Amino acid sequence: MKFFVLALLTATCAWAEPAGSSQAQAPKSFIKVEVADVRSSPQDSAEQVTQGLLGDEVQLLEQRGDWFKVYVKPQYRTAQGYPGWLRKESVVKETPQASPAQVVVSVPEVSLRARPDPQSKVLQKAGLGSALALAGPYQKEGWLSFWVPGLKDQVYAPAKHFEPAPEAPVTDGREIVETAAQLKGTPYLWGGMTYKGIDCSGFTYTAYRVHGITLPRDADQQFEVGIPVKLSELQPGDLLFFGDSAKEITHVGMYMWDGKFIHASGSLGGVHITKVDHPKYSAIFQGARRMLGAEKTLP
Questions:
Q1: Structure confidence by residue, pLDDT tens digits, 222-247
Q2: Within a domain: residue 213?
Q3: With 60 as the cut, is the pLDDT of residue 119 above it?
Q4: Quick check: is 251 catalytic?
């Protein structure tokens, strides 16, 4: 995977602006911090419903004091994105930079530096699943350059920490499981989306996002898509769903192998590996879904 990024940079001596880019692009709004808490109402004490990641585009709907009502566009809850409120200092409105491609952070966190040097100043950080726009051509001993919302100058990070946008959907679920397993031990956080704290559906959403597959943000809607599979037919990357009934899905995990699944559990305090036949989970198991090869992964 990493070879693809380097080959892309090596093969292109200069980035050409996309066709039609001579026309001025309209400014858009983006999250400019590593992670932005999105809440159900415009107050810090309100329920956290999700988090936006650095570079996520948001649609601004309303302003109340220091808060914006938004849709976080990459996260599906509605066709417009995930609705909620975030603090206005988390958002910047700017004209997007022309970019040849995006890559996605494939490690729990990466430092974005002022120069392609591990000793240079860290200007920003980005977490697993953040999609960043390349600002090449820049390649020096495996470093890439990026445009980041809110920063005037390019930033740099090692190419090994990123995955390119796949030319075709990933077919091996083990790749997704290996990405997810990096978050083992991450504390549980309702509405969380990062290694600092994550919830069950944020965990599965993020692992798939790294590999170019967009799922709904929440477990109940993830259950509505994909291909139903039997327990006896589970493959790595398949999702397992739990709840009091099929209409009340409250938990999701990802099948690994050898009869085990990995999940972000509130009762266990974070990301753990559990046996599929564990009595607690067997009692509330409602079904499994395969996202790889599915005709649709959004409602």
A1: 999 999 999 999 999 999 999 999 99
A2: yes
A3: yes
A4: yes
Q: Which residue has the higher pLDDT, 298 or 138?
A: 298
Strand partners, 156: 113, 145
More confident call, 23 vs 186: 186
278 is a catalytic site residue: no
Q: How many domains does the chain have?
A: 2
For the question of residue 13 being annotated catalytic, the response is: no
Instruction: Tell me what pLDDT residue 90 has.
Output: 98
Residues 36 and 183 in one domain: no
Strands of 184-299 (E only): list them.
Answer: 193-194, 197-198, 227-229, 239-243, 249-255, 260-265, 270-275, 285-290
Confidence band for 5, pLDDT divided at 50, 70 and 90: very low
Q: Which of 13, 161, 200, 211 is catalytic?
A: 200
CATH code for the domain of 89: 2.30.30.40
Residue whose entry in the numeric block shows the structure tokens 């190419």 = 159
Do the Cβ atoms of 214 and 297 come closer than 8 Å? yes
Q: Catalytic pick from 13, 161, 263, 278?
A: 263
The DSSP code sequence of 111-179 is EEESSSSTTSPEEEEEETT-EEEE--S--BTTEEEEE-TT-SS-EEEEGGGEEEPPSS----HHHHHHH
